[in-house]
Fold this sequence. Notes:
CATH superfamily of the largest domain: Cysteine Rich Protein
Low-confidence stretches: none
Structural class: alpha+beta
Helix content: 10-25%
Oligomer: single chain
Number of helices: 3
Amino acid sequence: MYDMDNPPSKDYFGRCARCGENVVGEGTGCTAMDQVFHVNCFTCMICHNELRGQPFYAVEKKAYCEPCYINTLEQCSVCAKPIMERILRATGKAYHPHCFTCVICSRSLDGIPFTVDAGGNIHCTEDFHRKFAPRCSVCKEPIMPAQGQEETVRIVALDRDFHVLCYRCEDCGGLLSEGDNQGCYPLDGHILCKGCNSARIQALTAKASTDL
Length: 212
C-alpha cells in the first residue's frame, strides 16, 4: 500500500512478493508467476541462486531452479532418472511409462494387464503364462488362456496335465472330455476310453489264458 497523496514515482513497480518492500528503479525488479520481485529476492527456494533470466519451475507459487526442481522429483525405479512428466505407479514403485515393461518381451505395459512373479519381476500376462504355466504332457505346449481370455481349462490325469483337445484316448484318439468316449479309464499308465480299456483287458485276459 502507499499514500495516495504522495503517489510513488514512475519507477515504482509494486511491492516485492518475497520481502514486501517497494520495488523502485529500472533494473531492480522483475515479474514472475504474476508477481513482482526484487531481482535479488527472486531466487530458488532451495539453493537461493538468482533466477532472473534463468529457466525455473513454479510449484505452488514457489520458484525453483532447474537442478533443485529435478532433485525434488521421484526417480524411476528402472532407469533411476527423474520422472519429469507422468508417473506410472505399480508394485509400490514409480516408473516412467516407457520404462514399465515386460522382463521377457520388453513390451510397454502402460495400461495393459500384467503379472508379477515371486521375484518381483514384471511380465505381460502372455509371457507369464508361457514361462510358468503347466505344460501339456502330449503337445508339450503351456496350458494358458487363449488371447483375450483370462482363464483356461486344464485337465489332470495320472499326475499329468492336458489341454482339453489333447486329452484323448491313446489307442483310438477319441476325445475324452466329451461325446461317447467321455471319461478316462486308465490302464497300466495309459490314458484310455472305456471301449479301448475293455479291449486291452480282453486282450490281456486272452493272452493270459493262452499262456496257461
